[in-house]
TrEMBL record:
E.C. designation(s): 5.3.3.2
InterPro entries (alphabetical): Aldolase_TIM, FMN-dep_DH, IPdP_isomerase
GO cellular component term of the entry, any: cytoplasm
Gene that this sequence comes from: fni
Task performed by this protein: Involved in the biosynthesis of isoprenoids. Catalyzes the 1,3-allylic rearrangement of the homoallylic substrate isopentenyl (IPP) to its allylic isomer, dimethylallyl diphosphate (DMAPP).
Species lineage: Archaea, Methanobacteriati, Methanobacteriota, Stenosarchaea group, Halobacteria
PANTHER family on file: ISOPENTENYL-DIPHOSPHATE DELTA-ISOMERASE (PTHR43665:SF1)
Domain FMN-dependent dehydrogenase: 25-95, 168-336
Family, per entry: Belongs to the IPP isomerase type 2 family.
Top-level taxonomic group: Archaea
Protein name (record): Isopentenyl-diphosphate delta-isomerase
Residues that, per the record, bind Mg(2+): E160
Length: 351
């Protein structure tokens, strides 16, 4: 199996077996102000929202995780079927392996998502560095591969810097993102991969015409840490040390959400989001939706029902947060009162 595909399998194994979690999203220091007299019925709260004109039952995104190795087909099938059943959005992992390899088993690890979720909002995924190699036709091929409703372009340059085989040429990527955003047949989401997006970067992306920003901030799964484990396994000790040094690098998710929402009207908050309460806080900070990745990985290995159960739990957590803030709709939640404390407040003050 070629290198790109094998790397996808390595990533899943390391996430499942090793300690690759960091703290510090900032959500623990964001407190929604309690409404003791909400004057609404909890079961009549409307959690629905829209994303690029597509209605979601709740502002929940199953974040880009996997695809590109036959071992991941089962996981993507379960995730997609659950997205179909619950009416939430889902992204696939980088489609580079599907575009570069002529392998039906690899391709199926991606195409399975539309087969399992004919009506769900699905988005594809290519790397910003790969845009320097691909033309617009290649990106359209990624759209066609899963009949995508949108395309994510991921920014993962710290991860690439830790990989012994990483692509560390970031020159010209913004111009290519602007080109794709202008010409692609579906909306373009630019997403980080665990290190966050600052206010200035969000402004540059907004000016480039991207349709949404997924902040994927610091505080959840650390791809620097994942690549450190991979580097150590092949004897690349210097790269492994770099990965550990930058393990907790980045803009905290809560800060990144607030800053990006000040520059763009469609922000997805991800990076250490672990509950419906975190999603509620993110929406109060200005996000359109909240995304989770690692929490879905274990349930996906058990099957669709386990993923659905987790989504329904997150939905109830979100609904409860809306109830006790007096928010009858997601629009109301966007104006819910909150306070920022501790390091998050200090970070924002320094900014």
């Amino acid at each position: 199996m070629p290198e790109t595909s094998d790397r996808k399998d390595d990533h899943i194994r390391i996430i499942e077996d090793e300690d690759v979690e960091t703290s510090g999203t900032g959500f623990a220091e964001v407190e929604l102000v309690h409404e003791a007299l909400p004057e609404i019925h909890r079961d009549e709260i409307d959690t629905s929202t829209t994303l690029f004109g597509h209605e979601l039952e709740a502002p929940i995104v199953i974040e880009s995780m996997t695809g590109g190795h036959p071992n991941t087909t089962k996981l993507n099938r379960a995730l997609a079927a659950a997205a179909q059943e619950t009416g939430v959005a889902m992204g696939v992992g980088s489609q580079r392996a599907g575009l570069d390899l002529e392998d039906d088993a690899v391709l199926e690890s991606y195409t399975v998502v539309r087969e399992a979720a004919p009506d769900a909002f699905l988005y594809g995924n290519v790397g910003a560095a790969q845009l320097l190699e691909y033309d617009i036709g290649d990106v359209e091929a990624a759209v066609d591969m899963i009949d995508a409703d949108a395309m994510a372009v991921h920014l993962n340059f710290l991860q690439e810097a830790v990989q012994p085989e990483g692509d560390v040429d970031a020159r010209g990527c913004l111009a290519e993102i602007e080109h794709v955003a202008d010409r692609l047949s579906v909306p373009v989401v630019v997403k980080e991969t665990g290190n966050g997006i600052s206010r200035d970067t969000a402004r540059r992306l907004a000016d480039a015409g991207v349709d949404a920003i997924d902040v994927a901030g610091q505080g959840g799964t650390t791809w620097s840490g994942i690549e450190s484990h991979r580097a150590a396994a092949v004897g690349a000790d210097r790269q492994a040390q770099i990965g550990q040094l930058f393990r907790a690098w980045g803009v905290p998710t809560a800060v990144s959400t607030l800053e990006a929402a000040g520059e763009h009207d469609c922000v997805i908050a991800s990076g250490g989001v672990r509950s419906g309460l975190d999603i509620a806080k993110a929406i109060a900070l200005g996000a359109r939706a909240g995304g989770l990745a690692k929490p879905f990985l274990g349930p996906a290995g058990k099957g669709t029902d386990a993923v659905v159960d987790l989504i329904e739990t997150i939905m109830l957590e979100l609904r409860t947060a809306m109830f006790v803030t007096g928010s009858e709709s997601v629009t109301d939640l966007k104006t819910a009162d909150y306070v920022c404390l501790g390091r998050t407040r200090e970070y924002l003050d320094q900014r």
